[in-house]
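Schema walk-through. Below, the input block comes first and the output block second. Nothing else is stored per chain. Lengths vary across the set, and this one has 135 residues.
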Amino acid sequence: MSEFRYSICEPTNPKIIEKGKIDSSEIMQIVEDFPWKLHLEEVENSKNTYYSPSLEFENLSNKNGLAISAVGNPAKYEFYVFFKRPKMQKTWFGLSEKLNKNYTSELLDQNKEKTIEILKALIDNNLSFLERKFQ
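--- output ---
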């Protein structure tokens, strides 16, 4: 099992809540138990919204991570998923390369099933699946 760190963004709290280290076996339960609908209701009723309700998980050994944000109506919402990883990027018109330690790609309009599939790939360290998904 891999060790991860995770954090939470609550819509009406301006500070990101760092939750510390967890084992990969705990991630699915955290996502299932997170009060997505309740937080989206807060967004609708709040004058001060700082974030969409979000969870972020990062594999501590390879620095690959996912941030999952819920958006939309509390009765029918979807997820935006952001994949962060170290990646070589071409610079100077493709003449050289540089390592970007926080290269990020996003997938918008993801339903719960697709989001869980992506999350399982992160937990299983299936980086080839994630790279294909986030092209």
